[in-house]
Amino acid sequence: MKTVVVTDSTAYIPQEIRESLNIRMVPLSVVIGNDTYREEIDINAAEFYEKIRNERALPKTSQPSLGIFVETFEELSKEYDAVISIHLSSGISGTLAGAEQAGEMVDNIKVIPFDSEVSCMVQGFYVLRAAEMAQAGAHPDEIMQELNTMKQTVRAYFMVDSLDHLHRGGRLNGIERVIGTMLQVKPVLHFENKVIVPFEKVRTRKKAMKRIADLLQEDANKHANLQATIIHANNENEAITWKNELQPLMPNVHFTISYFGPVIGTHLGEGSMGLGWVKID
Fold first, then answer.
1. Helix intervals (H) in 36-139
2. What are the φ/ψ torsions at residue 92 (nearest 5 degrees)?
3. From the centroid of its chain, how far is CA 23?
4. What Å distances lie between residue 62 and 42, 118, 158, CA to CA?
């Protein structure tokens, strides 16, 4: 079977990499004032953070329309037998559900949805691996088996400067926000059962980042090789500094740097930092 991989824009995989691995991307959108922008197409991360700096109202985000998914799958059906459609966690977005529904509406191609249960470049880990296997001619069942195996060692933790964005965007409950604000806590967050929840409450940004690094170190001690990504919200210099600090301590970890783009950045806020990893052969 000839297989192609589809993902959404929140994987934040650079265009040149998507093109080299034949990854098709369906964009989510961000609404700033009266203007709607498709992320990674109409607006990039740097432009987004610049635009919202003086905005009082939180931008809104929207998932791809059902029609865009149908159109994408119909186009791919002319050349491919199967699509593996990998998306951000179904607990924070209806994007996966849209892909599933569209897949049932399109003939002549088998659409296989996969819930990454995370987002950003950690979601991208699955996409890149699936695309590499698809290019090598792997059967869709074999690719899905590999993705489910990866899920056992995928980890993602992040911290935000303020819980306000998560609360206002409906991604965190009000009690957590009040407690965090009162105590000036910088909670370490993660995905659990597909939604964002606090992992631990830490008092300072520095301690939160150290705690996340310690969690990576624990897994680096268990596994021969890890792929890790440092994810930043318009604070690339801090991400580079962190990478330079961690790399010598964990020579068996291959680090890259990625970013929180407009849609995820809307919910986390500028200055957020994340670290995700997965075991690799």
1. 45-52, 66-77, 95-105, 120-135
2. -120, -5
3. 15
4. 14, 17, 22
